[in-house]
Structure formats: C-alpha cells, structure tokens
Design goal:
Length: 282
C-alpha cells in the first residue's frame, strides 16, 4: 500500500501527543440523556439500573486499560484518571479518547439487557468525551472534588424537585419555581418538613456517586472483601481482563499484592481518601 502515488495523503494526519509527565483525565458524558432517560422510563430522580449500567461500563474500561487508576461516575458521566507516566498508545490523544469512549459505549449497549431486562433500547445511545491534562496532584484531587460536589448539588436539587412533583403534586414548572433561588439549607428543610425525608438517609450511591479504585490489596485484604460487583466474579460472558488475571495469578502462585478494581460510594473530597492511597497519584 505504501509507495503508491496516493500515499502522500497520510502526511496530512498530524501527530497529537499529550504532554508527558501530566495526568490524563478522560471525561465522557451521555449525549441527550435527559431525553433518553424519559424515553426509557428511568426512575426519577435516580434510576439505580442506569447507574449500575454506567458502573459496569466503567469497570469494563478499567479492565481493558490497566493504567487507569481511578474513575468517578454520576448521572450520565464518568471520569477516568490515568497513571501519570502512562505510555498508552504513545499518549496519542485521539487514539486514547476514541477507544475509551467507544469501549464504554459498546459496553453500555452490550450490557443494557442485563439491567433493563425486557425494556429494550429504542435507539442507539452515544457519549461525548474530552481529555484534560492536569499538571499536579492538587488539580487532580480538586477535579474529583469538583465532580463529587456537583453530584451532591444535583442530587439535592433533583431529590427535592421530584419530591415536590411526585409527592407534593406540583407540576414540573411549579417545582422549578418553588426551588428557584433556594440555598441548600432550604432544600433540606423542604424535604424534611414537607415530606419527612432526611437527606442524609438517602443512599450514598446517590449522594456521593460511584468511585472505582484500582486498589493494591494484599492477599489478606482480598479475602476479607465482601462487597464486589457481580461482574467481577460471575460474569457469564467472561468480561475482559478480570478472569484472565485471576487465572494467570494462580499459575504464578506468588501474588502477595495484586490490584483489584473496587466500587465505593465514599467521600473523595476529604484528604483521607487520597492519604490512604498515595499510589493513585504516583
Ligand atoms: P448533553 O447531551 O448536553 O450531555 P443531557 O440531556 O445528557 O445533555 P446532562 O446535563 O448530561 O444532559 O444530564 C443528564 C440527564 O440524564 C440528567 O439531567 C437526568 O435527567 C438524566 N439521567 C442520567 N442518569 C440518570 C439516572 N440514573 N436516573 C435518572 N435520570 C438520569
Ligand atoms: P489496531 O487496534 O491498531 O487498529 P487491528 O488489529 O485492528 O489493530 P488493523 O490494521 O486495523 O489492525 O487491521 C484490522 C484487521 O482486522 C485486518 O488486518 C483483518 O485481520 C481484520 N479484519 C477487519 N475486517 C475484516 C473482515 N471484514 N474480514 C476479515 N478480517 C477482517
Ligand atoms: Mg455533555
Ligand atoms: Mg449528558
Ligand atoms: Mg451529564
Ligand atoms: Mg484496527
């Protein structure tokens, strides 16, 4: 193929390397999911099936790309943090971004029936994506704090909004105007005084989002793990990396420490999460 008189067109393809020594952050977000969630009868404010499907997609991405150390998901978005020194695809921007977003999207579609059963997709969903480079650990921590604070703000708003509609009998227009200009404290008050809902009793998944961590675990730690996502252990399709990894570890018989992707709904704004896992930012 090379050497034809046509091959010169290749030089129009420009290199797109990402700056070395920086943290690569990929964020993807569902395209038009406000509508998609309505068209597929998502439970409001939080459809657990949809969130679990998002987590499944993110786990598939982390199983494929071992240089992703941490991921955070809320609503229709997921963020992925690569190891600072990753050499994946020679740090080519388009290659990294398109492969991550496309794998996530295909996993979302592939696994849809597992979470939504007989409720079929009515059209093919898509996700947009971007890469942001961060120069130091501080910006990375602040990035994740920003996303988790966003989860909190949106969830408080949505929980109050849908309580006004579903339990308070307001129209969506009325609920919007009831909430216009209110601060967080007033929303807590509306929830508690009008609907008897204590915001802090709402599931952590909804208040804090999903945190997928590539944990370094000792064998002792690993044996104590009780809360795993089902895809890790009993995926009938035999999901990408997980099973293979376990098999090769058995063969080698020496894994004192191994990495495992764990799902949490924990605080990542406080320093404690990061202090416990310095390797995430190394
Ligand atoms: P864009 O294409 O610009 O991203 P969008 O319609 O996807 O537009 P977003 O700001 O990304 O808008 O918001 C996603 C919307 O999808 C939420 O506002 C919510 O209505 C809906 N949504 C996503 N996940 C869930 C879920 N698990 N449960 C209920 N609704 C959800
Ligand atoms: P990369 O991830 O770098 O793109 P690749 O394995 O996808 O690696 P390509 O150069 O894109 O390599 O080549 C795609 C390969 O897929 C072909 O070489 C061929 O082996 C296979 N392939 C694709 N489409 C077909 C097809 N319709 N019939 C048979 N083989 C196919
Ligand atoms: Mg968007
Ligand atoms: Mg969206
Ligand atoms: Mg979104
Ligand atoms: Mg190819």
């Amino acid at each position: 193929m090379a050497g034809t008189k046509f091959a010169y067109v290749k030089i129009f393809e420009l290199p797109d390397p990402l700056l070395p020594g920086t943290y690569i952050l990929v964020r993807l977000d569902g395209h038009g999911f406000h509508r998609l969630s309505q068209d597929h009868d998502f439970v409001k404010p939080n459809d657990e099936r949809a969130l679990q499907l998002m987590d499944h997609g993110a786990r598939d991405v982390m199983n494929e790309f071992k240089d992703i150390m941490l991921a955070f998901g809320e609503s229709d978005e997921y963020s992925f943090l690569f190891r600072k020194s990753t050499a994946l695809y020679n740090r080519r921007q388009a290659k990294i971004l398109t492969t991550v977003v496309s794998l996530f999207t295909s996993s979302y579609v592939f696994n849809w029936p597992r979470y939504f059963h007989s409720l079929s997709l009515k059209y093919p969903p898509s996700f947009d994506g971007r890469i942001v480079l961060y120069p130091s650990a501080k910006e990375v921590r602040d990035y994740f704090a920003w996303r988790q604070a966003d989860t909190h703000i949106n969830n408080l708003y949505n929980t109050t909004f849908w309580a006004l509609v579903q339990q308070g009998g307001q129209t969506t227009t009325e609920a919007h105007s009831t909430l216009r200009g209110t601060v967080s404290k007033q929303k807590h008050e509306v929830l508690f005084s009008r609907f008897g809902i204590n915001y802090n009793d709402i599931a952590e998944r909804y208040r804090k989002g999903s945190v997928l961590v590539r944990e370094k675990l000792t064998a002792a730690d690993a044996s104590g793990i009780t809360e795993r996502m089902p895809v890790e252990d009993d995926d009938p399709e035999g999901g990408a990396g997980g099973t293979k990894e376990v098999q090769s570890e058995k063969k080698n018989k020496k894994p004192k420490i191994h990495a495992q992707v764990q799902l949490y709904h924990c605080d990542i704004i406080e320093q404690a999460f990061w202090d416990a896992r310095p390797y995430l930012l190394e």
